[in-house]
Design goal:
binds 2-keto-D-gluconic acid, 2 domains, alpha/beta, five-stranded parallel sheet, seven-stranded parallel sheet, Rossmann fold
Length: 325
């Protein structure tokens, strides 16, 4: 534990939310480098860094280059870009930003689902382009939410918040998760393919990482059927993006709504060209309100760690680590 926080060096590699950076600067000694690359560290800086506030990937080599590192505070609930297992093995705690973004991301998921099924962005373009006046009403949408069976891939906090909303919309709900979640009234499927076969609307909220890499593949997509809708609000890595593009182009499924992509911010032109893809630039949690709350939680974790020796929201890999004196 540390009594004088202003003597603690917190490294900010790359871009960080403005409010988080301002608070880090006020409470600690903040250092900045352009990216999380060990070749940018001077020997003095490498020795001094005790914490990182990160909105970028932190790999094992970077962790290894910082001998006095104690904590990596990740901006975001998803921390697949941080090598948390390696950090934990070295006694470095990793924190993320759960809860404060749950409702915002669930709201976005529902908006994206409705936009995808009812073609609202295209209908708005119809009006803006003057086609309502010239050509008449926007064509009736082939798809509807009515009667849809929703399947949620990833039943964590956000998955549950989406399920509650879908219930209010009158949809039936099933889910796939690593484990069945006790006391949930929704039908559980032990495999993703089993879930996809049982529903026509698959919403992925699953975290990134090796266990979910390209889990939503051609077979899973085809199992949704020709009226199938796929929505992704989790991570782009969980989907075989080429297979998805092919499924949309060939009509194996009806439509997809995507907030996340395999190689952000790069979205393949083939996907952009598809009229049955509704695409958002990773805005799930992106309101001023929610990003401020996430920024505060990043810094509150650092402050708590260096003043009490306990982080507020450690990720599971790091939960057992206790502060160095
Ligand atoms: C943010 C997210 O876009 O929390 C997450 O896991 O994906 C988003 O809320 C991201 O953290 C910003 O870097």
């Amino acid at each position: 534990m540390t009594s004088d926080r202003s003597a603690v060096t917190i490294l900010v590699p790359g871009r960080l939310h403005e409010r988080a950076a301002a608070r880090v600067d006020g409470a600690f000694r903040m250092a900045h480098i352009d990216r999380a690359d060990k070749s940018l560290l001077t020997p003095d800086l490498a020795r001094d860094v005790r914490g990182i506030a990160a909105m970028t990937a932190i790999d094992a080599a970077f962790i290894d280059a910082l001998p006095n590192l104690e904590i990596i505070a990740n901006f975001g609930v998803g921390y697949d870009a941080v090598d948390a297992r390696h950090a934990a093995a070295k006694g470095v705690i990793v924190t993320n930003t759960p809860d404060v973004l749950t409702e915002e991301v669930a709201d976005t998921a529902l908006g994206l689902l409705i936009n995808t099924v009812r073609e609202l962005p295209r209908a708005e373009s119809w009006l803006r382009q003057g086609r309502w006046v010239k050509e008449g009403p926007y064509p009736l949408t082939k798809a509807t939410l009515r009667g849809r069976r929703a399947g949620i891939f990833g039943m964590g906090r956000i998955g549950l918040a989406i399920a509650r909303r879908l219930e209010a919309f009158g949809l039936s709900i099933a889910y796939h998760n690593r484990r069945r979640v006790a006391e949930l009234p929704y039908e559980y499927h032990p495999t993703l393919l089993g879930l996809a076969s049982a529903v026509d609307t698959l919403i992925s909220v699953a975290p990134g990482g090796a266990a979910t890499d390209k889990a939503v593949n051609a077979e899973v997509l085809k199992a949704l059927g020709p009226d199938g809708v796929f929505v992704n609000i989790g991570r782009g890595s969980t989907v075989d993006q080429e297979a998805l593009t092919e499924a949309l182009a060939a009509g194996y499924i009806r439509a997809a709504g995507l907030d996340v992509f395999a190689d952000e911010p790069n979205v393949p032109q083939a996907l952009i060209d598809l009229p049955n893809a509704t695409l958002l630039p990773h805005v799930g949690s992106a309101s001023v309100h929610t990003r401020n709350a996430m920024a505060d939680l990043v810094v509150d974790n650092l402050v708590a760690w260096f003043s009490t020796g306990k982080a507020l929201t450690p990720v599971p890999e790091a939960a057992a680590i206790v502060a160095r004196q």
